[in-house]
Amino acid sequence: MKKILFSLLAVFMLVVAVACGKKEAPTEDANAQQQGATTEATQNYHIGIVTTSVSQSEDNFRGAEAVAKKYGLSNEGGKITIVTVPDNFMQEQETTISQMVSLADDPEMKAIVVAEGIPGTYPAFKAIREKRPDILLFVNNTHEDPVQVSTVADVVVNSDSVARGYLIVKTAHDLGATKFMHISFPRHLSYETISRRRAIMEQTAKDLGMEYIEMSAPDPVSDVGVPGAQQFILEQVPNWIAKYGKDTAFFATNDAQTEPLLKQIAAHGGYFIEADLPSPTMGYPGALGIEFTDDEKGNWPKILEKVEKAVIAAGGSGRMGTWAYSYNFSGIEGLTDLAVKSIEAGDRDFTLDKVLASLDTATPGSKWNGSLMKDNNGVEIKNSFFVYQDTYIFGKGYMGVTSVEVPEKYGKIGNK
């Protein structure tokens, strides 16, 4: 009987020992699960995209749609949360600010990309920075003081008015233009970046032996409105070409002026290198009667191809140009790419090379260049970047301006 009891006890102890031994085995699985949870935490994040409406800027809105399509909407298990600011954002700044700040209420929000830095962006970023210092803050094309915005943002990006002031005139010269006309009005010329670019354009024209012509036009926000401002351009461009010749290159500082300017240059001659904020959809569709299907909207290679055919058919080959990709659209895609890479790599060190590399991913076939922005004392701002895309001339292709060295002296023009 004792033998039986001892045997049963031995069997029982063996079972317990085996069971205890098996409890230690899942430790590797537990470690793997913990690693997986860490990876999941890195992958499960949201990025806020703040955009204007279609009526304010279709390229901004389409750019937001494009990144939402790529990464998915956050309310559907993806990464992107889109906020559309009011059309009258100047009058509704409190609403605009509160919309931006509300993105920080999402605990999974890791970055916010503002498509166009309309007034209100700075106070919104300041509030977010105080509330959630972990959130990355990126802004493109800021309307506010970029130096001030850079104190609360991680990355500030603007079109390079200094380099383009030189390169637009040089490209016109290389294509055969002997005169350069700058069209603007007092309100725009009171803006530092526009005034500085104008001064660089004038000096470049003189240095290249070109005649520089300063032309004043009605302000679209004056009593004449947009229709009156556009009518002035429609009526005057043929007269200007008759007076100055077809070897004149034209540049306008206002978007509303661009469409009638393109229409008359195509019909009567002259050169147009690129718009103030270049895009194949800036002025060309209205000037040349181009319409895009739903599947073409946001597809820049298709848009460029369609616009190029229309420009060539209108006789503008070799003298009319653009950027191949919309600045605003590609800016959203590029900054979102930069945010994704930063979040997933845990990298908050933003350099010009990293910004340009992310912009390149948004514009296959085209290239970017740029520089660090400098304040009025000539001191570089490490997180504020001037960028520009290669110029595309219809009928010729890319002009390679991103590899052209801009003489240092032009960067000093207009610095206080």
Could you characterize what this model shows?
The chain is α/β, with parallel strands linked by helices. The chain folds into 2 domains: 46-153 and 329-362, Rossmann fold, CATH 3.40.50.11400; 161-325 and 390-412, Rossmann fold. The chain is built from 16 helices and 13 strands. The chain has helices at 2-24, 27-43, 58-71, 93-102, 121-131, 146-149, 161-175, 186-189, 192-207, 225-244, 255-268, 284-288, 300-313, 327-345, 352-362, 408-411; strands at 46-51, 80-84, 109-114, 136-140, 155-159, 179-184, 211-216, 248-252, 321-323, 368-374, 380-389, 391-393, 397-398. The strands form 3 sheets. The protein has a 7-stranded mixed beta sheet, with helices on both faces. Strands 7-6-8 form a 3-stranded parallel beta sheet. It has a 3-stranded antiparallel beta sheet with strand order 9-12-13, with no helix packed on it. Helix 3 runs parallel beside helix 14 (327-345) and helix 7 (161-175) packs parallel to helix 9 (192-207). The longest helix has 23 residues, at 2-24. The chain is globular and about 65 Å long. 45% of the residues are buried. Residues 1-41 have low confidence and may be disordered. It comes from Fusobacterium nucleatum subsp. polymorphum. Keywords: Signal. InterPro entries: DUF3798 (IPR024258), Peripla_BP_I (IPR028082).
